Amino acid sequence: MVTQIFMNAALIGVGATAFMDLIALAQKHVLSQQPLNYAMVGRWFGHMIRGKFVHRPISASRPIPFERVTGWSSHYLIGVLFALAFLALVGDGWLKAPSLLPALAFGALTVLAPFLVVQPGMGAGLFARNLPNPNVARLKSAFAHLSFGIGLWAAACCASAFS
Q1: Which long-range contacts (CB under 8 A, 24 or more apart) does 60-65 make?
Q2: Cα distances (Å, whole numbers) of residue 79 to 31, 32, 159
Q3: Considering only CA atoms, which of 50, 84, 82, 87 is closest in space to residue 67?
Q4: Which residues contact residue 49 at a Cβ distance below 8 angstroms, ignoring those fewer than 6 apart?
């Protein structure tokens, strides 16, 4: 049972994160919006291991080896952890008949992670207030996390179709 929960979380978390990334890629090509540079996320995590949690800004901090791989790996691991938390909240019933609203609501809730943890840690401040266009950053974060929520639902629909 526990193994199945982790397998479901891995499958749905990776699927939802990949969906979010596909939306970001479409935004890049259709709207010319610059996506998040996951190398900076890797740099942030790399410095955390060394005891530095806040940067001003992260781009001015010393690069670390394999920061791009670290950033992308962390991004997908966080997606799996979010999926695990979501599945713990909604229970097995949702997996048997996935519905969009709970997944979308959870996706919206996950935007608190960048607003309250990632952006301040990387030097952008709470809710990206230190950036030149904080409202643009906030909207991009909200849209990304809503797309993650849609991805949770889509990945669960795919998984339930094959089970």
Answers
A1: 60/123
A2: 25, 25, 16
A3: 50
A4: none
Question: In angstroms, what is the C-alpha Rg of the chain?
Answer: 16
Nearest residue to 13 via CA among 71, 83, 72: 83
Give dist(CA 5, CA 88) in Å, integer.
9
CA distance 93 to 142: 27
**What's the CA gap between 138 and 115, in Å, rounded?**
8
Prior bond of 98 cis (ω within 30°): no
Tokens standing for 47? 């410095």
Note the pLDDT tens digit of each residue in 53-109.
999 899 999 999 999 999 999 999 999 999 999 999 999 899 999 999 999 999 999
110: buried, middle or exposed (CB in 10 Å: 19+, 13-18, 0-12)? Answer: buried
Selection from 162, 161, 145 nearest residue 16 by Cα: 145
Q: Which amino acid is at 65?
A: P
Residue with tokens 């049972």: 1
Q: For the whole model, what pTM was predicted?
A: 0.92
